[in-house]
Write a structure and sequence with these properties.
With 138 residues, the protein is α+β, with helices and mostly antiparallel strands. It has one domain: Alpha-Beta Plaits (2-Layer Sandwich). It contains seven helices and four strands; from the N terminus they run βααβααβααβα. The protein binds 2'-deoxyadenosine-5'-diphosphate and magnesium ion (MG). The site of 2'-deoxyadenosine-5'-diphosphate has 10 residues, from helix 4. 2'-deoxyadenosine-5'-diphosphate (DAT) binds next to helix 4.
């Protein structure tokens, strides 16, 4: 049994695809354990994406994630971390496996390198613990 953290990014919320994402989590057999909608801040994004702060594209991530409200949640289940990563598809939607969320709904990088891949998932059990504390800790 594992717990992982997911985010439906601003484009997913704005396009009305939140229900679709939650449906895919639930029909896979995962159990939602927390969920909230909020407007992210630069501060919380800097914690969440601390490994990417020095990347040249960090400002693009920040602009994207601040565009509108996001939905952050957690769910539990067998091999939840890896299974959710597979369900999302790889980072670049243009390369994501057909049938994955990112392939089915998201857009590949445009000419500015902007990537709007619609969903987030923790990439390890340790990252999930860290991210759950960031978004749901006191
Ligand atoms: P993932 O979201 O698949 O875990 P990541 O943690 O490496 O990918 O990066 C976080 C986000 O940053 C990703 O969802 C989109 C953006 N990003 C990553 N690499 C990028 C790049 N080369 N150019 C533009 N945005 C990028
Ligand atoms: Mg990541």
């Amino acid at each position: 049994m594992q717990e992982t953290l997911f985010i439906i990014k601003p484009d997913g919320v704005e396009r009305g695809l939140a229900g679709e994402v939650l449906r895919r989590i639930e029909r896979r057999g995962f159990k939602l354990t927390r969920i909230k909608m909020l407007q992210a801040s630069k501060e919380i994004l800097a914690k969440h994406y601390e490994d990417l702060l020095e990347k040249p594209f960090y400002h693009q991530i920040e602009t994207y994630m601040l565009e509108g409200p996001i939905i952050v949640g957690t769910f539990t289940g067998s091999d939840a971390v890896k299974t959710w990563r597979k369900t999302m598809g790889v980072t670049n939607p243009a390369e994501a496996e057909l049938g994955s969320i990112r392939a089915d709904f998201a857009q590949g990088p445009d000419e500015n390198g902007d990537m709007r891949n619609m969903v987030h998932g923790s990439d390890s059990v340790e990252a999930a613990k860290r991210e759950i504390e960031i978004w749901f800790g006191e």
